[in-house]
Design a protein that fits this description.
This protein is an alpha/beta fold. It has eight helices and 24 strands. The structure holds flavin-adenine dinucleotide.
């Protein structure tokens, strides 16, 4: 009987666990999820929390009942260290768990080493965590009462720059709705060499559309920008330019979770798991990684000026490959499924402030045959429908659905 341990219970972790269990159904193998939180969080909807369009409770699903129904064990603990040589994980509850197969799906941590960027200093807030989204909600309503210049942007290693664009357009929309837009100059500061690079070397129509969006909404922008510090009322760029700010939201660099950085021999320099096209660790064949925790673009990251984004769609696709490969190894097969990261399709819906954009690329990175940035100027219907579908699918444990 094999022990399969999954660290993390969100997009990649939940799907890996449920799919591994489903594929091994009838066998006596045990699948266990260890997660530091007891719920699934639909992260894409965090962009709506600051504007009271969602509460955190609307986008959370408790995972223990979902896993229990599927016959998967759940342990709410934080993994602190992985010993890949002894096949063992230790947690904050001083427990030690042995595994035959380990799936690392712990997503990413945030790096606030940029001077002045740490949210506890009060100069900068990032909306991509539940607490950050709630803090921004308070700050947004203070801004409505006391308008001033706004700086929105991302650092070069920010992991999902598309979400920072979404936040920008939603903020602009809500300022307009509350009648303060004319009093608030907005500057978008991005490490991208051009608007719409998005960490994927652009998609067809992206740059033109985003320039139009910026122009029609009177948002000025700085591309190729590196921020050197964030202070109470200003953001300083490496060019020497100082931008005045009453409200700053800069997406920080992403880095691997502490558990990876604390586990010698496991992660790359930034704490992500180097994996092959089978999503197996490059040195330990019984360790798999999926989602943001996995670094599958081993030869590409240095040539790209901003971080390659990982969507929920990709995280799940990788989780399916992991589940399939674990069941193949257990069944003594050697023909493991392979999908080079760069060839996974890029698919996401961007909310552009009650308008939306469908972004599709047949391969996430070039070379590719087809890509499109398709605005829908009427309403953001698809993104809201996708949220409902995803929460329904998660509540019911239907990980096999797309
Ligand atoms: C603000 C924002 C907006 C986004 N919008 C979109 C979008 O519109 N569409 C889209 O497709 N993608 C979007 N994404 C990307 C998407 O959220 C990620 O691709 C997805 O969350 C990756 O899933 P994951 O399971 O790899 O990591 P995560 O979702 O980050 O999950 C990691 C899990 O591991 C747990 N964990 C961490 N460390 C430990 C530990 N030591 N021990 C135990 N458990 C641990 C965490 O608590 C968490 O539950 C967005 C991302 C952000 C940040």
């Amino acid at each position: 009987m094999a022990q399969i341990l999954v660290l993390g219970g969100n997009f990649a972790g939940l799907t890996s666990a449920l799919e591994t269990k489903r594929r091994l159904r009838g066998d006596r193998h045990e699948v266990t999820v260890i997660s530091k939180v007891d719920h699934f969080l639909y992260i894409p909807s965090l962009i709506w929390v600051p504007f009271k369009e969602r509460d955190i409770s609307d986008i959370k699903v408790p995972i223990e009942p979902v896993l229990k129904r599927a016959g998967v064990n759940f342990i709410r603990e934080t993994a602190l260290k992985i010993d890949p040589f002894a096949s063992k994980v230790t947690t904050d509850a001083h427990h030690s768990y042995h595994y035959d197969f380990l799936v690392i799906a712990t997503g990413s941590d945030l790096d606030y080493s940029l001077p002045g960027s740490d949210p506890t200093l009060g100069n900068n807030t990032y909306f991509g965590t539940p607490s950050g989204a709630i803090t921004i909600r308070n700050q947004f309503f203070q801004l409505v009462d006391n308008p001033g210049p706004v700086i929105i942007g991302a650092t070069p290693k920010a992991g999902y720059i598309g979400a920072a664009y979404e936040f920008l357009f939603n903020l602009e929309y809500h300022m307009k709705r509350r009648g303060i837009r004319r009093e608030v100059p907005i500057v978008w500061v991005t490490p991208e060499p051009y608007l719409g690079h998005l960490g994927v070397e652009g998609v067809f129509g992206g740059t033109t559309s985003l320039k139009l969006f910026m122009h029609s909404r009177s948002i000025s922008f700085r591309t190729n920008a590196t921020i050197t510090s964030i202070d109470k009322e200003k953001v300083t760029l490496s060019s020497g330019e100082v931008l005045e700010s009453a409200f700053t939201m800069i997406m920080p660099p992403f880095l691997g979770q502490e558990v990876i950085r604390n586990s010698p021999g496991l992660g790359d320099l930034r704490g992500f798991i180097p994996v092959q096209a089978t999503y197996q660790h490059k040195d330990f064949s019984n360790i798999f990684a999926a989602g943001v925790a996995a670094n599958a673009a081993l030869n590409r990251s240095n040539s790209i000026p901003c971080e390659i984004p990982k969507t929920g769609f990709q995280a799940q696709m990788e989780a399916h490959i992991v589940a399939e490969n674990i069941s193949r190894v257990i069944n003594h097969r050697t023909d493991l499924r392979q999908k080079p990261f760069c060839e996974i399709p890029g698919l996401c819906i961007m909310d552009a402030g009650h308008k939306e954009v469908l972004i599709y690329a047949n391969h996430l990175l070039r070379p590719r045959q087809f890509s499109i940035f398709l605005p829908n100027p009427i309403y953001d219907f698809s993104k809201r429908t996708l949220e409902k579908y995803f929460l329904w699918k998660t509540r019911n444990g239907f990980a096999q659905l797309p």
